[in-house]
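Deviations from the work plan: none for this task. Representative record:
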Amino acid sequence: MDAVSAHARTLDEGNPFAARRGRFRLPDGVIYLDGNSLGVLPAAVPERMRQVVETQWGESLIRAWNEHDWIDLPQRVGDRIGALIGAAPGTVTAGDSTSINVFKMLAAALSLRPERKVILSDNGNFPTDLYVAQGLRDLLDKGHELKVVAPQEVEAALDDTVAVMMLTEVDYRTGRLHDMAGLTRKAHAVGALTLWDLAHSAGALPVDLGGAGADFAVGCGYKYLNGGPGAPAFLYVAPEHQPRIAAPLTGWMGHEAPFAFDLDYRPAPGVDKMRVGTPPILSLSALDAALDEFDGVDMAALRAQSVSLSELFIAEVERRCDGLELVSPRDHARRGSQVSFRFEHGYALMQALIDRGVIGDFRAPDVVRFGFTPLYLSHEDVLRACEILEDIVATRSWDQPRFHKRAKVT
Amino acid sequence: MDAVSAHARTLDEGNPFAARRGRFRLPDGVIYLDGNSLGVLPAAVPERMRQVVETQWGESLIRAWNEHDWIDLPQRVGDRIGALIGAAPGTVTAGDSTSINVFKMLAAALSLRPERKVILSDNGNFPTDLYVAQGLRDLLDKGHELKVVAPQEVEAALDDTVAVMMLTEVDYRTGRLHDMAGLTRKAHAVGALTLWDLAHSAGALPVDLGGAGADFAVGCGYKYLNGGPGAPAFLYVAPEHQPRIAAPLTGWMGHEAPFAFDLDYRPAPGVDKMRVGTPPILSLSALDAALDEFDGVDMAALRAQSVSLSELFIAEVERRCDGLELVSPRDHARRGSQVSFRFEHGYALMQALIDRGVIGDFRAPDVVRFGFTPLYLSHEDVLRACEILEDIVATRSWDQPRFHKRAKVT
């Protein structure tokens, strides 16, 4: 064993999450560095799905809404996510997609600043957030402007025209981590509200929405939270805004008394008014089961492991591979739980890696991205991934026609 | 065997769907007359869910988007639903909730009639449709009016101020069936567009959106389509409107090239522009598997069975039970696949029925509602339900404190 392998093994011996690895179903022969795109299947999910499908739905049928308290599942799951992101009970609800939740939160935020017209965002935001803002701007037709600047220019762009600063905390492409507390403070200083997208934060690093004074937030259930493909998303409304905002999507589950079947809409109290349609019980249940894997997890310890894994990865890739340029911030304090490199033939390189069992992903035009999920990833995995990457780069084995063929989803 | 039982048995012998009953998991001791609220579990769903969770998600992980073509699942499921409602391929997409789809379709419709301000609906519409319209009206803040009339007054209320006539074809409470083709024609005659909610139609009776010239439609996956609790909903956009409408909820899955990750939104062609966030693969897969049960089903034959079941139910209830007043239209041509009765102590009556294994549901303030789903219901079931109802009414066994206790979900 060489010195690096010995080092990796030593690091793994101190891994407080080593015992949790067995609670995830990792396919044989795969090193999965894409938990930031779709989390691995938690071992408890299949049995929970069987129960929900065969027993709750199959046996209880319509009675399950009461017998299994399906009706409050969005709130229960919301509170469990809230515990991971510094959100008090009753401030988070789970459901719909991240995009739809961005729409709800952005519309709510704009309604609190009717005299201001600027939605400030950055070009590292995930495109769907920007698309939703563009659609809302056009729908409202009240002269709002979506101002998109570079991430490092956000602070300077904050002024008293800004109604909402809408940012994704961790850049999906580069892993760059915004200073949530600092930017929120600065936004508030000019009277702007904040909407944080936690898609690459929740379950990946410590988040403290309450401590940061964030106004609104949304996030994703299928990345670090391991809720399954297209899992329900979540949203957060700070307690002080809950009584003051109107829901733009006013479905019956956000009604004060859904089962009174009144003809007139009356908002439910609190964050519940942001619920819309009938909750998706199957996928919410999968997410609920997946959250079991976060029970007892110290997010600071998880962050320490994530940093350790990604630092090892950066060091070894830079030591072993020519032509890969680090895109992510080198300072781990400014980086989320992913590391990205630029490589001219990034698409083909990623296909070659996947072919060898190292799964990361590619983001156009030339970025290869690797996510680090300490609950099911070891330093030895990371080192093995580096060895395979080194071999592919050294032998140019990415340069085969089959690795250049574009798939529908990249 | 008495004459009625013999009659029921004879009717069942001619049931073309008798062999399908075994393809649904009916709990022992239950006569389920609530498939219009939550459809029964199709026997094929558990295995499909196991595959999707354990093999597709568990083994393929992120690769499943291509390997199992998850990305097009909303369109594939949409086309399968389309085949049941007279919608051409490429006009229906599955996803989100009915409420959210009402929002999308109503906003799209209003954008095509900018000079008109009236949304016409009726008080038999499911409340969430009205709530969504109220929310959209307030959000747009352009002087729209939601005009809600009695169902029989809709036709007279159609005039050249109406932008959209938004109706649920089958009244969730009474089962009253609107004349979709006739009302659509009359709406078009005054220049109004139509938005049909098929929540209690799809999978329950023949629907011909194309033939009726309907403009927009939405519907529910968890009622007669048996897609599971909170299953994805669907929406329909007539071909001629597809190039002309803008999506109000502009998420990345409705983008022309989602994986180009452009900063600017450009709508996808056709109905795909109405997609929003990442599709909920687990629940979409359950719905997809459930739709297998409609393969080869002649909707006219299904309708004939539904009428036969509900006619028997009405006749026997009226013959056997005092105090129940038929709320549904007596003429089956004007009725969907459910039958409702008014009963002063409707809530307690339904609880007592459920306690005896006859599951229908209650709609405030005093309606007991029974749905008829020919794929898994026989005339003998219906007759047995009538016998139990007769006994409960005759002995006033509903009048026990435990049957009056209100549950959270009624």
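Chain A has a mean pLDDT of 97.
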